Amino acid sequence: MEDEDLLPISGLQHLLFCPRQCALMFVEGVWSDNELTVTGTQAHDRADLPGLESRPGVRIERALLLRSDRLGLIGKSDVVEFHQETASDSREIWRPFPVEYKRGRRDRWQHNEVQLCAQALCLEEMLGIAVPRGAIYYIASRKRQEVVFNRTLRDATEKAAADFRAMVISQSTPPPQPDRRCRKCSLKETCMPEVIANQRPVVPYIDSVARGDAK
Predict the structure, then answer these.
(1) CA-to-CA distance for 207 and 210, rounded, in angstroms?
(2) Sheet of 73-76, strand order
(3) Domains of the chain by start residue, with CATH
(4) Number of Cβ atoms within 10 Å of the Cβ of 34
(5) What is the pTM of this model?
(6) pLDDT tens by residue, 13-53
(7) Is 172 within 8 Å of 27 (Cβ atoms)?
(8) pLDDT, tens digit, 9 for 90 and up, residues 195-215
């Protein structure tokens, strides 16, 4: 698969957080920054500086290019730690352990875990080695949450990748579903969730006018 046919791994996070936000960005090409997106970008920029670090038993690589032709995804890691292990056949191996940096705190949506799992699936395809776990580092709380890439999370990630591609191919933007996610979204003014969600369908409204029962 050619690079231009691959979709960004980061889109999975937007899709699961808000499908309409994802479509506005990756179907309609709309983007706008606010304070939260700017600080989040700055945090990622610090983590994404290319380079290699090492300490006993651990190598740390930043801004590693990732891709999966099977899932049709491409992207770049924040950090991938390689942990030295002894395999069952006594070989020394370096097991990848992806780490994703996030500005805020852990919430009830699974979008961050799916984005991290997609990175793990890319690493498995690229390197031919199992990646059983990784971590999300939440900058605001300075806490690191370990994530196990179990079958349920892997299935959710593969479904998200398929749904993301279907959305892009169909060029469809779903209607808004206003809730508390909208309050801090940088695309709120473009999306207009409350206005569009409250619009009445035109054809039924015209029919109701013709019947004389429109309100």
Answers:
(1) 5
(2) 7-8, 73-76, 65-68
(3) 3-174 (3.90.320.10)
(4) 14
(5) 0.81
(6) 999 999 999 999 999 998 775 454 545 455 555 556 676 78
(7) yes
(8) 555 554 444 544 554 566 655
